[in-house]
Design brief:
The complex is a heterodimer of chains A (about 375) and B (about 100). Chain A has about 375 residues and is α/β, with parallel strands linked by helices. Chain A contains 14 helices and 9 strands. In chain A, α1 packs parallel to α2 and α2 runs parallel beside α3. Chain A is globular, with a radius of gyration of 21 Å. By secondary structure, chain B is of the alpha+beta class. The chains are: A alpha/beta (about 375), B alpha+beta (about 100).
């Protein structure tokens, strides 16, 4: 058998399969990375179709499985999917808000071989504007955390950070500590999808970031090895782009709820690419042979300054989706890079964020829900926007 | 990558995989791998041979004996096994077996 990777033109086998099982979600997070037009997509894959994807994935070498959404607990066949993943030998990660997690369900997940649960702190929902001081939030998370501990899973918390919660970093960390967190990821908002719709509202100030990081460092000192805290910076404040997905079609394969296969969560937005559907093609063809997955492999597609850049093997020119969203051309350098002729598109936003926001001069916030999604898809027009 | 941290341990104490780690053979990689939340380490060749003997009841001494028996033509393996397992311990992959 030829070893993948021995031929520079032959892609590696992928390692990470992310299954966005559903776009149904009880929450309305304003930073959600699901596509804004999800309401216009076709039906969700059936249980059998997901099982076929999992089987083909193992043959392809996929080993880490993310079960996400939407809220994956909204699928009542999650137990079946987890058990099949366990049988096939995946290391299975459930990415959930914990809403809908019961003892009966977690017991079945454990029995089926679920390895890991990542619990998200969600906020900015219209039901819970004052979520940090809400005992309802804490009690709910506490119940989920107790179940997670009882079933011997690591306590992993993720909280998406932005302009409206960075000043509460201390309280967020205290809440995580009180819930027995072993790992905490404070991940600053990445501006895609719903977060892009709400970019102005969510973009933090420089001062907020400096303070939040100082608070995080002091908290690390206090808790030591008991709690590992990761603070992920927003790329708008960087001068080099992230090595997005470790390169296009390099290790990561995302399957959307309707079966569309993507090299990242966001790529469906890119024009001129037909992304294959698992109901029509097998994963092997999709990964190695489909035009979509080969579009931005290697560096043949690159323009200057990436093409001759000594760092192109490190960051692959950054993120194709961000390049497209901001410059209109996915083959441009990610404008986060200060060598990009479009870098001003980033710095202008950053400078704008330093100014105080008045309700009158800021775009109203858009909640992630079906109605807004229909509006943003251009279907169901005539429905009034917002509440 | 940072210099691997070597953490010594008692050579007569049984060893087990640390919590949340899983070790298996990967046909697609043609090697053993160690899996953990959102990550994977490939353990080809001798690394895989050593790790597959971490079973909750074998100590380092027992693993050296088992390897020496499995590969009788190999020279003294002890130093290599100590090197690898101290790094594995430093990485948090293995630990002395915990009494249940």
């Amino acid at each position: 058998m030829a070893t993948a990777g021995s031929d520079p033109r032959k892609p590696n086998s992928p390692h990470w399969l992310n299954a966005e099982l559903t776009y149904k979600c009880p929450l309305h997070c304003v930073f959600c990375y699901n596509p804004v037009d999800y309401a216009s997509y076709g039906r969700e894959l059936t249980t059998d179709e997901w099982i076929r994807v999992l089987q083909q994935g193992r043959e392809l070498g996929l080993v880490q499985l993310g079960l996400s959404g939407g809220e994956p607990l909204m699928r009542d066949d999650l137990e079946i999917i987890i058990a099949e993943a366990g049988r096939l030998g995946y290391y299975t990660n459930l990415i959930t808000s914990g809403i809908g997690l019961t003892e009966k369900r977690i017991a079945a997940f454990k029995e089926g071989g679920l390895n890991h649960i990542q619990l998200s702190f969600q906020d900015s929902t219209r039901e819970m504007n004052d979520w940090l001081s809400s005992t309802k939030t804490f009690e709910h998370k506490k119940r989920a955390a107790e179940l997670i501990q009882k079933y011997d899973y690591p306590m992993v918390f993720n909280c998406v950070m932005h302009r409206h919660n960075l000043d509460h970093t201390q309280q967020i960390l205290e809440m995580a500590e009180a819930l027995g967190a072993e790992f905490v990821e404070l991940a600053n908002t990445q501006f895609y999808a719903w977060a892009m719709e709400n970019r102005e509202q969510l973009m933090p100030t420089r001062e907020q970031l400096v303070k939040a990081e100082a608070v995080t460092n002091a908290f690390r000192e206090k808790v030591g090895d008991r709690m590992k805290i990761y603070f992920v910076h927003p790329d708008y404040y960087e001068s080099r782009p992230k090595a997005c997905m470790n390169g296009w079609g390099s290790i990561f394969l995302n399957i959307a709820a309707d079966g569309v296969a993507l090299p990242c969560h966001e790529a469906r937005m890119l024009p001129g690419i037909t992304f294959p559907n698992v109901t029509e093609h097998d994963l092997k063809w999709i990964w190695y042979d489909s035009p979509a997955f080969n579009t931005y492999r290697g560096d043949g597609w690159m323009k200057e300054p990436c093409r001759t850049c000594p760092e192109k093997e490190q960051d692959f020119g950054g993120c194709r989706c961000q390049a497209f969203m901001l410059t209109g051309d996915a083959t441009n350098a990610d404008p986060v890079c200060d060598l990009s002729p479009h870098h001003h598109l980033i710095t202008e936003q950053v400078e704008k964020a330093q100014r105080p926001q008045m309700p009158a001069n800021v775009k109203p916030i858009v909640f992630r829900d079906d109605r807004n999604s229909r509006r943003l898809s251009g279907v169901g027009q005539g429905v009034p926007a917002g509440d | 990558m940072a210099q691997p941290r070597r953490v010594p341990f008692d050579h007569a104490t049984p060893l087990e995989l640390a919590k949340y780690y899983r070790f298996q053979w990967e046909p697609a990689q043609q090697c053993h791998v160690l899996l953990y939340p959102e990550g994977m380490v490939k353990l080809p060749g001798s690394a895989g041979e050593i790790m597959k003997r971490i079973d909750g009841s074998s100590s380092l001494n027992a693993i050296v004996d088992a390897l020496q028996a499995a590969f009788p033509e190999a020279p003294d393996l002890r130093a290599d096994v100590v090197d690898f397992l101290e790094v594995a311990h430093g990485n948090g992959w293995i630990r002395p077996a915990q009494a249940q």
